[in-house]
């Protein structure tokens, strides 16, 4: 899936749809920790991961930009640190100038007012005024991979982000996952419209049938029942 197609299809999906598609497809659901939130309200991202492991200097980011392609997303690994901001307005401006779609930071940012004015989507764990007061040894694989929470990602991954958070998916599974996500989205939209029209969700998913069947088979799960009746509210 090329960048144009990725942007077009994600524009009418959410990270929740794609996360549910991962569950249905047996693909690990790799979410950034919930603390990683959009700095720019309503920010959305979809692009290939351009990883960078921060060591105290912006040169890591400049190196990542040298290797990045238009539409990529800078994914910054600062170990979730809370004692320093590792990205400010100049890095965000440079990311935009390099054609990147946005920035995801496992750590803090600063220069919030300037970042808001720039308008490029940025996701981080929050803000603090101070920049790094250290200069560590450049990590091996500094622009080859990045760790965000419990997940390590690289250029073989896509990053998707919206108001629900940040999700990483394998690029080579994107087509299958998006197709599933679109099916889930359409099912949920039909369910929502029926609720608005007076047909309760309990009725739609035959909840009384599930309760009766569970009395006969206590091991029966609601997800198994939903699959049988075509529901999508949990997958």
Rounded average pLDDT: 95
- The outline comes out as elongated
Looking across the biggest beta sheet, what order are the strands in?
A: 1-12-11-3-4-6-8-2
Instruction: Measure the end-to-end span.
Output: 23 Å
Unreliable spans are none
Proportion of β residues? 15-25%
Helix content: 25-40%
Order of helices and strands: HHEEEHEEHEEHEEEEEHHHH
Question: Number of DSSP strands?
Answer: 12
Largest sheet: 8 strands, mixed
Number of helices: 9
What structural category characterises the helix and strand content?
A: alpha/beta
Quaternary structure: single chain
Radius of gyration: 20 Å
Can you put this structure into words, describing what you see?
- The protein is α/β, with parallel strands linked by helices and 235 residues long.
- It has helices at 3-10, 15-25, 59-67, 89-97, 112-118, 174-196, 201-204, 207-216, 222-229; strands at 30-31, 37-38, 45-53, 73-77, 85-87, 102-106, 108-109, 122-124, 145-148, 151-154, 157-162, 165-170.
- The strands form three sheets. It has an eight-stranded mixed sheet. It has a two-stranded parallel ribbon with strand order 5-7. Strands 9-10 form a two-stranded antiparallel sheet.
Please give a handful of descriptors for the protein shown.
235 residues, alpha/beta, eight-stranded mixed beta sheet, two-stranded parallel ribbon, 12 strands, 38% helix
SSE blueprint and pairings:
Elements: H1 3-10, H2 15-25, E1 30-31, E2 37-38, E3 45-53, H3 59-67, E4 73-77, E5 85-87, H4 89-97, E6 102-106, E7 108-109, H5 112-118, E8 122-124, E9 145-148, E10 151-154, E11 157-162, E12 165-170, H6 174-196, H7 201-204, H8 207-216, H9 222-229
Parallel strand pairs: 3-4, 4-6, 5-7, 6-8
Antiparallel strand pairs: 1-12, 2-8, 3-11, 9-10, 11-12
Helix pairs in contact: 2-6
């Amino acid at each position: 899936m090329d960048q144009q197609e990725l942007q077009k299809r994600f524009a009418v999906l959410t990270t929740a749809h794609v996360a549910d598609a991962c569950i249905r497809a047996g693909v690990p659901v790799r979410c950034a920790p919930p603390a990683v939130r959009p700095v720019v309200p309503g920010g959305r991202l979809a692009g290939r991961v351009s990883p960078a492991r921060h060591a105290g200097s912006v040169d890591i980011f400049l190196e990542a930009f040298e290797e990045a392609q238009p539409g990529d997303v800078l994914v910054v690994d600062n170990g979730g640190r809370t004692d320093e901001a590792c990205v400010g307005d100049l890095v965000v401006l440079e990311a935009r100038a390099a054609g990147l779609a946005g920035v995801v930071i496992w750590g803090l940012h600063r220069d919030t007012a300037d970042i808001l004015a720039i308008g490029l989507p940025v996701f981080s764990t929050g803000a603090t005024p101070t920049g790094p007061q250290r200069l560590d040894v450049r990590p091996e694989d500094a622009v080859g991979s990045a760790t965000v929470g419990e997940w390590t990602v690289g250029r073989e991954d896509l990053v998707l982000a919206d108001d629900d958070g940040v999700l990483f998916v394998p690029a080579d599974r994107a087509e299958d996952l998006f197709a599933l996500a679109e099916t889930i989205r359409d099912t949920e939209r039909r369910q929502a419209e029926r609720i608005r029209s007076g047909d309760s969700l309990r009725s739609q998913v035959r909840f009384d049938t599930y309760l009766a069947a569970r009395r006969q088979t206590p091991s029966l799960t609601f997800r198994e029942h939903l699959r049988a009746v075509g529901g999508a509210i949990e997958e």
